[in-house]
Every structure is written in structure tokens, then in C-alpha cells.
Amino acid sequence: MNTPVRILILAALAVVVAVAVVLKPRQSPDEPAAVSAIAAANLPKLLDLGADKCVPCKMMKPILDDLKANYADRFITEFIDVWKNPAAGKQHGVEIIPTQIFFDADGKERFRHIGFYGKEDILGKWRELGVAVGADGGAAIAREAPVAPDVRPREQVCFLCDGDVNPQKRTVVKGDTEQRILCSPHCYFIYFSSIVGAEPKIEDAKVSVADWAAGGLIPAAGATYLYGLDAQGRPTIKAFADKAAAAKEQQASAGNVVTWDVLRGKELATRCAFCDRAVYPEDACAVKFGATRGYGCCTHCSLGVAARLKQDIEVEAKDGLTGEVIRVKTLDGQIAALEPATAVAWFAQKKNAEGQWVSAGCFKQGFFVDQTNLQKWLDSRPAMTGRQITIAQALADKMKLSPEQIAKACKLGECK
Ligand SMILES: [Zn+2]
Ligand SMILES: [Zn+2]
To answer: What is the pTM of this model?
Structure first.
């Protein structure tokens, strides 16, 4: 899918280059016509220079229509097809399409962006340039303090995913100073895959799991497991000290009876292509790079694959509230296409001991088809803190990571 986009952009470049060769420079000392029009309207202007057949340009179309319809009193939105009107491309020095140019009310160019540019990014840029687009445009959501605190007792909250701990699946990892309580062996394997240089024998010896039938904690490595699937096709794991109890439960609820080592193989079979954590594909974002398909353990990790592999990717994420599909394509580290164009990202953050904002971890990040869905999702998560960012910002945050930062991304205690 990347090839046609590239070709179109290169084709566009060829056209503009060809135009540059063919056309004579402007002789007129007059102001360009576009500038006069802006001054007359006394409004700032967004000028998008593209072509009706270029893929990222087509993705811009609904955004431009939206801006034209809803922000006509704040700024002018104009589109020029530079394949049909090459002189305009030349006049504005456009080399790659689409290019967006932001003019102030005096017609002076204030900012220029190349490639697909999402609605929230455009509005954000206008805010930066001092144009009031906030109020009715839906300013980005920011939540610095919980609406209501999380009052669950600590031992009932999974250290890793923050989910409720079901006593029948309780998993405990012994630490040097304290023990960490996890909601399931699955969260243990995610935890395990987050530890740099983890040695299975050493790490496994610290883990105990609840006996699903008899209650009480038993050493994880010596237990027998019933590995089944729930109604949504996600794996379920039940631990037993007694093999006969596992067989009995198998009669009742189906699944395979397996050892810890077999369970480890299944659990670690699929890893996040960005941070290497274990994931269930059902919970993950699908990422396509070249002919390969992989997974990102969260929406932000899925964009990180572009940074880690230095490759163009296609992400298929699900809206955190409704599960609706959100598609993102990247081109040279920028967003090339976004569907729907209204999609936004939530960057969950919390304050660390030094009072700095840090990522609240993969389990709390998400994409949403629009801000309304994000708001509804937040309404049901009163303890959540963080801020709304654009998908482009989420990608940019990953693209600026150094190889060293990528190498330790999301490893326990180092996720920033
Ligand atoms: Zn958990
Ligand atoms: Zn990840």
C-alpha cells in the first residue's frame, strides 16, 4: 500500500519539477492574487496545495470540507489542485504534495507543512499562531487530577494492567522488598517479557499462582494449567496443584491441560513489535510493515514500530470505547493517511515521585474515532489522568526516540 502513495507523491514532485522548468518566473511585481484575497477578507487562511488524485491529498479532502464548513468565521480554507493549476504550485514554491500553508490575516506566510495533516493538528497550529479556534472546535482534553480517586485496596489491583484481581487467578511475584500482585499468569508473562535479560528459571522461581480449585498459592512452575478460550476467543488460564482437579475442570469447561513450560511457549508466542512485550492478538493493534504482519501491544506502541524498524507501516487499531476500526498509514515517519480523519489519541500520564509527568503505561493508552468517544471513555475512568493528543503527535513522540530509548522502551521502570 505504501508504493502507490510514494509514486503519487513522486509523480507530483515530477509534475512540479517539470512545471518549474517549463514556466517562466513571475514577471509581475504585483502581490500574488491569493494574498490580496486574504487581505480583503481580513481573515487568516489555510491553503492546501494538492491534487485530486493523490492519496494523502484525498485524505485531506473531508478535513478541508469540515474546516470550510465549521471554521469559516475563523479562517479561510482553500484548496488548489497543482496538477491542474501548476502555476499556483510554482508561485508557492511547492515541491511535494500535499503542502499546507498557513497565512495570517495580512497574507504573510506563518507556517508550512508537507504531507497529510490531521484536523486536530491544523487547529492546534492555528492556536499556536494565535487564532481562536478553541471554543467551538473542541479544545484538546486534559485531565491533570483524577475526577475520583481509585479506592480499590492495593492487593485487589493488578500491578501491571490495573485490572481487578480475581482471587481464583491471583498471581504473585516475590520482589526484593515487596511482592507484586497480578491479575493472572498472562500479566506475569507480560511482566516477564518486560524485564531486560530475564532468565526464565530465576524469574519463574519468584512466582506463585492461586490454585483455581482449592484456593491458596502454589509455585507457578510446578502447577498444572487448563488453557481454554473465553467467548471472545481470548485465552483463559486456570492453575491447579492437582492434575486430577485440572482434568475435572477440563471436563466441565474444555481447553487443554498443559505444563508451565508449554504455557510459557503459548504466552510468549506473540510479542509487541515495538517493545517486545507478550500480547494476545485479540488485545493488540495489527501492524503491517512490508509483507509482514505484527502487533503493537498498545496503540502508541503500534506507531513505535515505524520508529523501531524505520519503515512505513499500516496500523489497524480499535476505538477504545466502541471497537470501531481506526487506520493509520505512515510515510517517512509522518502520517500519510488517517481513517477516520477525526480520530484522536489519549496519552495517559501520571506524575512520578519527582512530580514529572510520565507515561502511565501501555494498558491505559488508546485511540478513538473522535473526541466524543474519548470523553465517554474517560467518563467511565474517573481515576485516569493524561491528555488528548493527535495521532500525528503520538507518532512524532515515537519518531524522536533514539535507538537506545527504543531498545529499552516500556521495559519495567524505564517507560517514559
Ligand atoms: Zn493484569
Ligand atoms: Zn508494546
So the answer is: 0.70
Do 257 and 292 belong to one domain? no
Ligand in nearest proximity to the CA of 361? 2
Whether 286 and 213 map to the same domain: the answer is no
Using the mean position of ligand 2's atoms as its centre, give its distance from the Cα of residue 278 in Å. Answer: 8
304 shares a domain with 230: no
Query: Alpha-carbon distance 21 to 185, whole Å?
Result: 65
Quick one: three-class SS letters along 208-245?
A: EEECCCCCCEEEHHHCEEEEEECCCCCEEEEEECCHHH
Residues 20 and 65 in one domain: yes
258 and 281 fall within a common domain: no
Mean pLDDT across 175-198 = 92
What is the 298 CA–ligand 2 centroid distance (Å)?
A: 6
Give the span between the Cα atoms of 389 and 397, in whole angstroms: 10
Answer yes or no: is pLDDT of 352 > 60: yes
Cell of 92: 508557492
314-318: strand order across its sheet: 292-296, 285-289, 314-318, 325-331, 334-339
Report the C-alpha gap between 219 and 307 in whole angstroms: 39
Q: What is the pLDDT of residue 131?
A: 81
Distance from Cα 378 to the centre of ligand 2, integer Å: 22
Arithmetic mean of pLDDT, 233-259: 95
Question: How far apart (Å, rounded) are the C-alpha atoms in residues 271 and 297?
Answer: 8
The pLDDT of residue 172:
97
What would the pLDDT profile of 65-85 be if each residue is shown by its tens digit? 888 877 777 889 999 999 999
> Residue 91: which domain range?
2-137
- H-run or E-run covering 337: strand 334-339
Residue 147 lies in a domain: no
- Report which bound ligand comes closest to the CA of 284: 2
- What is the 162 CA–ligand 1 centroid distance (Å)? 6
Number of folded domains that form the chain:
3
- Of the listed ligands, the closest to the CA of 194 is 2
pLDDT (tens digit, 9 = 90+) per residue, 92-111? 999 999 999 999 988 999 99
Distance between Cα 281 and ligand 2 center (Å)? 12
DSSP, res 319: B
Does pLDDT of 261 surpass 70?
yes
Tell me whether residue 148 is in a domain.
no
